[in-house]
Each structure stands twice: as structure tokens, then as C-alpha cells.
Amino acid sequence: MSAAPEHSSARPPAAEAAAIDASIRVPVLVLLGFAVFWLLGATALGLAAAIKLHTPSFLAQCEFLTYGRVYPAALNAFAWGWGVNAGLAVALWLMARLARATLPGAGLLTVAAVAWNVGVKLGVLGILAGWSSSVTWLEMPRHLMPFLLVVFTLIAAWIVGLLRRGASPRLYASQWWLLSALFWLPWVWSAAGAMLFLAPVRGTVQSVVAAWFGHNFLALWFAPLALAVIYYLLPKLLGRPIRAYWLAPLAFWSYAVFTTWAGAARLAGAPVPAWTPAAGEVACFILTLPLVVIAVNLFGPLLGNLAALRSSVVLRFAAVAAFCFTLSTLRLAFTALPGVAEITRLTWFDTASDYAVLYGEFSFAMFAAAYYLAPRLVLRPWWSASLINAHFCLSFTGHVIAMFALTVGGWIQGQELADGKIPFAAVAAHTLPWLQAATLGGLLLAIGHLAFAVNLVKLVLCPQHRAASAAAPVPASAFSAPELEQAPAP
Amino acid sequence: MSAVPSNFGPRLEPAAASDESIQRVHGALLGQKPQPEPGGYSLAPLALLGFMSALILFGCIFLVHNRGGFSPLVQNRHVDPATIGTEKVELPLPDIIKSGAKLYALECVKCHQATGAGAPGAYPQLAGSDIVTGNEERLIRIVLHGLKDSFKLNGAEVVYPNKMPNFAPMAGSANTFNWSDEKIAYVLTYIRQEWGNQAPPITAERVKEIHAATADRKAEWTFGELPAK
Predict the structure, then answer these.
(1) Which has the least CB within 10 A, A47, A147, A248, B90?
(2) So what CATH class is B93-225?
(3) What value, to the nearest 5°, has the Cα angle with vertex A15 and ends A12 and A18?
(4) Residue B197: which residues within 8 A CB-CB, separation 6 or more?
(5) How many beta carbons lie within 10 A of that of residue A374, not counting itself?
(6) Into which CATH architecture does domain A174-374 fall?
(7) Which of A250, A278, A293 sits opposite B67 (nearest CB)?
(8) What was the ipTM of the complex prediction?
(9) Would you kindly state where each structural domain of chain B is located, as residue ranges?
(10) How many contacts does A have with B, using Cβ atoms within 8 A?
(11) How close B90 comes to chain A (CA, Å)?
(12) Which residue in A has a C-alpha nearest to residue B54's C-alpha?
């Protein structure tokens, strides 16, 4: 260790971290609780939609449970309910910890979190009631959008404001990704809202805007948050710095510049000027540059400590998230290759590509963060270790099954659709076994989410667990952290 | 690196680095590029630069091949925008015959009749007529600008009381058919292949070409002015 620690306050790091955790406890737990509520809701709705795909008579009697409503309701509950709540919870915690700032006005922030969830609930109910718009990810009734946008922006601004209060003189990579995600989402969201609802652009441009938003909602909110968590947790748990960290800014900037273009690749084959999807496809190829750098950054410390994966579930969640980031970026580049999109467009293959970001990349990172941070906020260990292990196994197996089924099934579907000799009804019938396999995967995910929810409720609310922990308190040393050793320069 | 003793397992995973030290160490690492040996070079930055250049090169080539001329009108990337509007749009022959039949039923049928037999002494026949199945240019010119006085039909000198009217616009003419070259081509192709007539189709280009050459014609042709067989 070359330099002396720079504590701007007199407090030792462990005491400082404890004070920060205490200041953010309520809003983070409220956001996390809502996130898990929405995760369960979205899982139930998504499972219903998945079953309807191969058993259309399932729940077909109720108008508000028809496929056209349940499916967007599931997507929106997942994205705006689970995705934004969990993202904000993790962003708030990470930003407070890395900026080394205590949170002012936690009560107000909690009120804002409740307001957000009231809005999302109205939105999802609105979709089920049949008031959805037709734009993917923006199906919630359009009049709710300004309210949600304002609430989100206020919460995001609050989190960004922590930087000013923080004792840390530096920004770590996780903070670049967090900060930009907190700016990017209001940007793409308000731009798409203005161009599609407020003053709708004309004709073809609408589909360009919708495709741009459809990609960037995933690429500028879900992916950066996942990366922020992984960049933080790897050194945190492994005690090893990021490999080739001097390249990390290159990854950040090249990702920021090119991913906004990549959305246009979704329009391959659509009735838009040919150069639009072509430019998007070029961006998809160039995104392999940040991918290479990020893979070196993250897999460097991981591959040197594979044994740690066996003992740490949090690391396993984070490693799967890093692996899924790699895979989904490669999928993007693969789909952009000439001739591939002609097969995969409008098939389950494309849907699976979105799920890889939403679930494999984002949700696994959020699970990792939640399992790491929650016991530190309530100063108690999780209720059950086996539920944590079960959650990982179920989520991993379920995700692999669903991804495999939709990827292979979607590829076969695309090839058959391109073959004029196969009737459409036969193509649809051939997808059935794959969709049934995907439902099986979804079922495993649902059980895993239940395990997660039960564990979280027990951890935070269960009186017995609380009493047991109070009787045998966790020693302060369990919350302290040693200094990170600087690896010798390569 | 010292491990924090913990017996909680996954219920409370120990941290291996404090937040402050993560910031400090990475802050120092940010400026630490790999230092080459004296006289040597380090491979990583070079390999990355090579990869970046390859991506940019490939991206440019890809975009040039798939840009569709950056034209707002080109939606199919496999189309070369330079060829748009230059390729010939020809109807298939059955459609041409169908259009020709409609045009025939609209005007020509009034004199030459639906059977193509004309009216003896009043209007000449088209069925089995050597003028219809013969010289393309002569036939086109007759329909473009009309025909008056006597003419030779199937080897016999004939004369009819009525003139053949001009179907193309002509200065000094009261006729308002104003048929396009395409319409004339369609109807001529029809009458050359109907009622047992068997002669090759007449293209719109051929009509256009002859129309251009005779654009200043101000009166109906006499048979002697027309090219013979």
C-alpha cells in the first residue's frame, strides 16, 4: 500500500459505512420491498401470458386477463415496477456508499418512492383495463407519464445530489454508470414520450422513435445499472481490483456513444430508409469494443478467483450477470450480421434477446446487490441460507431453460416463416413445445422469486428472526471491511 | 488481503475491501497504463487499437454496402438507388392484351365492330387484314395520325367514305382521343393477336420512336406516304 488512507472524517471506514447505511435504510428497504412486490406480480402475469401462448383457453373468460392485456401488463410491471424500483434502490445505496455521503431527507424520498409505486400500480391496472398505448415499454396510459416522469426525475436528482455531499474525492466506474443511467432514462423516456404522444411525429418516424426507445430503455437503464453493481461487487467481495482499469473509461464512452444508435438495428426489414437499420447494425458491431474492455475488466478478477464462486452466492449472481452482458452484446452483433435479422426478426429469438438483458443481466445483478446490501441495512443476517441457494439454482436453471427454448425455437420459427412452402399455422404449431419449455423455465423463476420474497420479508419484518438476532447480535467485525490491496502493475 | 472471519455463509457475505480503499486503489490504477520494457512494446494497447481499427473499417464497408444511397425512398438495401426509374416496367403480355381489348371496346369497336370484320362498304375489316399484321411502322402511323383516300387491302385497291381518325393529338385536328403511346401499343398488340391474326406485339417504345419521328404531321396520311410492305 503506497498512499495513506484518505479519511476526510475522523471516523474509521466501518463506522462511516454504518452511518451511511443507517441514513438510507428506510428508502432503500421501501424501494426494495416494492421491487420484490412487482417482481412477484410481474412473474404471475408473465406466467399467465406464457401459458396462454400454448393453452389459449387458460383464463380466457375474463376480458382483462386476455393475452393482449396480460402480456404488456407483465412487461410493464417488470420494467417499471421491478426494474425501476430495484434500480433506484441499488443506485441510492451504491451512490451513498461510493460517494461516502449520508442521505438527507430520507422521509421525503420514501414518500416519493410510494408515489412512484402508486403511479405504476395505476399504470398496470390501466393496461389490464384496456387503456394501453401501443408502444412497447410505454403501454401504461399516456396521461400517467408526466407524473411518473416527474417523480422519477426527482428521485434521480436526489441520488445525484449525494455526490455533492460525499466525502469521496473520486468517482469510481460504478458511479459513471449510475450517474449516466439516472440521466439517460429521463432523457430517452421524455424524448420518446414527446415524439410519440405529446406531439406525434409523422409516419415512418414513429416506428424509428419506438425502436430507438425500445432498445435504449434496456441499454441505457437496465444494462448500466447491472454494470454498476458488477463493477462494485467484484472488488468488494474478491478483494482484487478491476483488471486493466485504465481502459474502463474507453468502455464507458464507446458504449455511451454507440448504443444509442444500435436501436435502429431493430428496424431491419421494416419500411424505413435502408440506411437507418444499416447505421444501427454498424453500431451493434462497434459495441463489441466496450464489450471486450468490460469483459477484461470483470472476468480478470473473476477468473483468477474461481474458487470464490463456490463459497459466495452474491458472486455467483454477479458472475452470471457479467456473463449475460457478454452474451447479450454478442447476440446484438450476431443479429446485425447480413442475413441473420431476416431469420430472427419477429420471432421468439428477438424476445429472448430482450429477456437476456432484463433477466440474465439486470435481475441477476440486482439479486446480487440485494443479497449483499439488505443484511447490512438491518444489521441482521438473512433468514435462511438454503432459500438463497435455492433462489440462485432456480433462477439460473429457469433462465437457461427459457433462453435456450426461445432462442432455438425462435431460430427454427424464423427459418420456417421464411419458407413459403410451410403454412403459417404449421409454423405456429411447431413453436408449441418450445413455448411449453419456456413456461417450465418461467415456473422455476417464479418459485425462485417466492424464495427471495419470503427471505426478504423474514429478514426485515419477522419478529422471531428479529428477536433471535437481537439475542445473538452480529459482531461488528462482520460488517467491517479490510483495505483493498493494490495489485502490482502488470 | 485478510479475510474477515464470518460464520454466516451466504446469509451475510463478508466484504473483502472497504469503499474508501476501492476508490483510492482504482483512482491510482486509472492512470496506470502498462509500461513496456525498455526497447519493447506492450501488446494489450496495440491489440485493442487493432481491434478498434478493424471494427471501424468493417463498419464503414458495411455501411457503404447497405446504405441504400442514404436515400429516404430506398427501403430495400439490396436495391441500387441509381437504377431506380431507369428500368423498364413492361406489363406481361396477357395484361397488355387485356388492356388493349378494353381500349378497343371503348372506341375502335364503333367502326370496326367487335368481330373485327368492319362494315362492308363503310369500314374496313381488321381480321385477316395485311395492314394490321404487316409493317409495324405503317400500322402505327395510321393509328397515330389517321388515313384518308384509297388504300391497298389484301392486294385489292379499296376506298371507303370515312377517314381513319388520328388517335394521337394533332395540330388542326378536332379529334380529342389523345391516346398515349402506351395505349396505342396495347390496342395494336391486341388487334394483331385477335380474330385469328398472328403478328408479333408492338412495344410502347416503338410507338414512341415513330411518334417522335412524325411529331410535326398535321394531316391524315395518304397510303402512298406510308412505307410499303
Answers:
(1) B90
(2) mainly alpha
(3) 145
(4) B116, B126, B127, B128, B129, B132, B133, B191
(5) 22
(6) Up-down Bundle (1.20)
(7) A278
(8) 0.87
(9) 50-87, 93-225
(10) 200
(11) 25
(12) A286
List CB contacts (< 8 A) between B28 and chain A. 2-3, 486
Interchain CB contact of A309 with B (< 8 Å) = no
Q: Which residues pair with B156 in a beta bridge?
A: B153
Instruction: Kindly list the residues from chain B whose CB atom is less than 8 angstroms away from the CB atom of residue A338.
Output: 66
Q: Are A66 and A132 in contact (CB under 8 A)?
A: no
From residue B166, how far is each of A407, A422, B161, B216, B223 by CA, in Å? 68, 55, 16, 13, 14
Give the nearest partner residue to B62 out of A282, A313, A382, using CB atoms.
Answer: A282
Confidence at residue A487, expressed as pLDDT on a 0 to 100 scale: 59
> How far is it, in rounded angstroms, from Cα A188 to Cα A484?
37
Helix (H, G, I), strand (E, B) or coil at B55: helix
| C-alpha cell, A290 | 466496450
Q: Which of residues 61-100 of B touch A (CB under 8 A)?
A: 62-63, 66-77, 79
- Put simply, the chain A residues between 322 and 341 with a CB less than 8 A from any chain B CB are 338
Q: CB count, 10 Å around CB of B193?
A: 18
- Residues in chain B predicted with pLDDT less than 70, given as ranges, are 1-6, 87-89, 229
Give pTM, 2 decimals.
0.81
Mean pLDDT along residues A201-220: 94
Q: Check if B31 contacts A (Cβ < 8 Å).
A: yes
Q: What backbone torsions phi and psi does residue B163 show, to the nearest 5 degrees?
A: -85, 150
Domain ranges of chain A: 16-170, 174-374, 380-460
- The rounded distance, in Å, linking the Cα atoms of A64 and A60 is 9
The alpha carbon dihedral of B112, B114, B115, B121 has a sign of: negative
- Which of B17, B68, B72 has the CB atom closest to A484's CB atom? B17
Interface contact flag, B12 A478, Cβ < 8 Å? yes
> Using a CB-CB distance cutoff of 8 angstroms, which residues of chain B are in contact with residue A313?
10, 13
Q: What is the pLDDT of residues A131-182, one digit of tens each?
A: 999 899 999 999 999 999 999 999 999 999 999 888 888 999 999 999 999 9
CB within 8 A of B37, min separation 6: which ones? none
Q: How far is A237 from chain B (nearest CA, A)?
A: 5
CATH number at A16-170: 1.20.120
- Single out the residue of A53, A108, A104, A366 nearest to residue A230, CA to CA: A366
